[in-house]
Design brief:
Strand order of the largest sheet of chain B: 1-4
Oligomer: heterodimer
CATH topology of one domain in chain A: Rossmann fold
Distance between the termini of chain A: 120 Å
CATH class of the largest domain in chain B: Alpha Beta
Number of helices of chain B: 7
CATH architecture of one domain in chain A: 3-Layer(aba) Sandwich
Distance between the termini of chain B: 88 Å
Largest interface: A-B, 36 and 30 residues
Order of helices and strands of chain B: HHHHHEHEEHE
Structural class of chain A: alpha/beta
Shape of chain B: flat
Number of helices of chain A: 15
Number of strands of chain B: 4
Radius of gyration of chain B: 24 Å
Strand order of the largest sheet of chain A: 1-14-13-17-15-16
Radius of gyration of chain A: 29 Å
CATH topology of the largest domain in chain B: Alpha-Beta Plaits
């Protein structure tokens, strides 16, 4: 098949062989699981359990709220021992509402109904089951999958693309999943196709994963699913890049892929859909890559959601040398972790322990205007210009140069010969603009409140005066009447 | 005597008439800019800027006698909006980031006097006599009126704690 030309991109060292050649291992159930209530884009889930309750594996512990949200399920059977703030898997080190479960060791599943033939279910029913299973985009974006399914059906999506790009260095969980669970993934893909009514189905896999390509091609033969090798480059796993490579279409700047009739899901999401619809199993575990030069035995583990990152490192033989940096996700887009005592969430594709040698020097020097970043940017932006404006405190100028289209892939920072932390500038500016936006919204709301209060106090004042005037008139009328009576009596 | 009184009365009447007509004909419709600036300001009439209410502040801004960064509860967003409306350059980066504050009731000290409840310009305090009051965080502009009237120092302004939702990377050095 003809592939289309791509813009930008870089070729970082893969270092995937550290973890990719070892078969998937299942992490033994830890004693305690810390399950955050918000592991997805949208409104946080509302807890349904109390401290002391006993729950089964797969039981709903927090319900989704609002249109864009996802429910959360217990990852094992056990007792709820705490509901409250716990450190989140985030660079800020801040806490987030979390449900803590003490495992009872039985790991007993909740009995659920599963259809004998999932393809006999209606598309709406599949979307509902995917939503109820708490499935979110497992490629890292964590957008609730059911919302995507129902929106795609409404938008008449014709092409379904399954993203097996996995372009982040070190991360190999999708690779391993495709090698070992190919037929389950293909069934998940066919279920998604059934749910959205797509005509074309393509699985894009980077050509640096020959074993995964082979396994997926074998599993897809005889089905309507086409497995296609795409060039190995970063960020191939960016959904819009994958769309461009396979269809030649570009998603408009402010648009979504549904605008051009395409739906993109990750291979791990397709696998989760299969588990949920075929077996009625909600998303309570995921495959996580544990890798990095400091890890003794890197590999891919099936990890219950809520397991602490430090447990993963311990299971992988601990550290062979002192790690210089812990990273959540891949080295390009992941975020630095300052503590390993944080839980794995639905969006955690990997945890890395990198040595000082691997992270290299980061001393920033002045920009030499070589424009390497411009050539590397897959979106077609001018990173050097945007960063210069942000450094000068003019974030709005950066917005007019396309800051909001920046996907923070890190290509610009990667190629910069001066080691300027370009993406850091963009993330800072995006956060700052978001804060301003929130401030503006709050101001509008409070202004309305202030105006309403002003109107109310004035009305009350007016009513009081009116009431006083009425009382006065009544009193005078009464006095006049009394006077009249008196006069009449006197006259009589 | 009569002549003097008559002529003065007539003079007064005529001059008064002229003044009355002039007041109507040459009436000036306030400064339109003041109204627009007033729309940008929070409207909580807290007086933290040193002017009597938001109207006074808007007037001072229109005259150019006050900087656009005068409004503490409005914060950076208001300063930027004011600067844009007035067409002036404002260094908002340094000025704001006086940490955003929010009112908080310390329940063990609250005596349920309803004073703060009565002065809150945005109805951000919930309460009734003899009941412990509480603050609606999303409605509080940190104007500080409640703190000023509280007899037991139960209501205080505290810095807004950073949440996971609002956190972002600091500017690179």
């Amino acid at each position: 098949m003809k592939l289309f030309k791509l813009r930008g991109g870089v070729h970082p060292q893969g270092r995937k062989e550290l973890a990719s050649e070892r078969a998937i291992r299942v992490l033994p159930m830890p004693d305690r699981l810390f399950i955050p209530l918000q592991q997805h884009v949208g409104a946080p889930a509302q807890p349904l359990v109390k401290v002391g309750d006993h729950v089964l594996k797969g039981q709903l512990i927090a319900a989704s709220q609002g249109f864009i949200s996802a429910p959360v399920h217990a990852s094992t059977s056990g007792r709820i021992v705490a509901i409250g703030d716990y450190a989140a898997a985030h660079s800020s080190g801040l806490a987030a509402p979390t449900v803590t479960i003490a495992s009872d060791g039985d790991d007993r599943w909740l009995e659920t109904d599963s259809p004998s033939d999932p393809f006999s279910l209606s598309p709406e029913e599949i979307a509902a089951r995917v939503g109820a299973a708490g499935i979110v985009g497992l490629g890292g974006a964590t957008f609730p999958s059911a919302v995507k399914l129902s929106l795609s059906r409404k938008n008449n999506v014709r092409t379904l693309i399954i993203n097996g790009g996995e372009c982040e260095p070190y991360i190999t969980c999708d690779d391993r999943l495709m090698r070992e669970r190919a037929s389950d993934i293909i069934e998940g893909v066919r279920l998604i196709r059934h749910a959205v009514g797509a005509v074309d189905v393509m699985v894009g896999i980077e050509e640096n994963k020959p074993a995964a390509l082979l396994a997926m091609r074998a599993a897809a033969s005889g089905t309507e699913v086409k497995v296609i090798a795409v060039p190995a480059m970063y960020p191939m796993g960016w959904d819009k890049q994958m769309i461009r490579a396979l269809t030649g279409c570009e998603v408009p700047a402010d648009g979504r892929s549904a605008d051009i009739g395409v739906l993109v899901h990750n291979v791990a999401t397709a696998y989760a859909v299969h588990e949920a619809v075929r077996f009625g199993r909600p998303l309570v575990s995921r495959l996580v890559t544990v890798s990095g030069g400091a890890v003794a035995e890197p590999g891919n583990l099936v990890v219950p959601i809520g397991t602490l990152v430090e447990t993963l490192f311990q299971y992988c033989g601990g550290f062979s040398e002192k790690p210089a940096r812990l990273v959540l996700g891949g080295p390009m887009m992941g975020s630095e972790l300052f503590s390993a005592a944080v839980p794995v969430v639905k969006g955690t594709s990997g945890v890395l322990a990198l040595t000082a040698r691997e992270i290299g020097s980061t001393q920033a020097a002045p920009c030499i205007r070589c424009s390497s970043c411009v050539r590397a940017c897959p979106v077609g932006l001018l990173p050097l210009e945007m960063a210069a404006h942000i450094r000068a405190g003019n974030s709005n100028a950066a917005v007019s140069r396309g800051l909001k289209d920046c996907i923070a892939c890190g290509c610009c920072s990667f190629v910069c010969p001066s080691h300027i932390p370009l993406v850091h500038y963009f993330n800072f500016a995006k956060g700052e603009l978001m804060e301003q936006e929130r401030g503006k919204l709050k101001l509008e709301a409070t202004k309305k409140l202030a105006d309403e209060r002003m109107a109310r106090t004035q009305r009350i004042e007016r009513e009081r005066e009116a009431a006083a005037a009425k009382r006065k008139a009544a009193r005078e009328a009464k006095e006049a009447a009394a006077k009249l009576t008196q006069t009449i009596t006197e006259a009589a | 005597m009569i002549t003097a009184m008559t002529s003065l009365t007539i003079l007064g009447a005529i001059l008064g008439l002229i003044l009355g007509v002039a007041a109507r004909v040459f009436r000036v419709e306030g400064n339109a800019l003041v109204g627009e600036l007033l729309d940008i300001l929070p409207g909580s009439q807290c007086g933290q800027c040193g002017f009597p209410g938001c109207a006074g502040a808007a007037q001072a801004l229109a005259d150019g006698s006050a900087p656009v960064t005068l409004c503490p509860p409005g914060g950076r967003a208001v300063a930027i909006a004011l600067a844009a409306r007035l067409g002036v350059e404002a260094d908002v980066s340094g000025v704001k980031d006086a940490v955003p504050m929010i009112a908080e009731v310390r329940e063990e000290l609250c005596i349920g006097c309803t004073r703060c409840f009565k002065v809150c310009p945005t109805d951000a305090i919930m309460g009734a006599a003899q009941q412990i009051h509480a603050v609606f965080r999303e409605a509080c502009t940190a104007c500080g009126k409640c703190e000023a009237v509280c007899p037991t120092e139960s209501v205080t302004l505290v810095p807004v704690s950073v949440t996971l939702h609002g956190w972002y990377w600091p500017k690179p050095v």
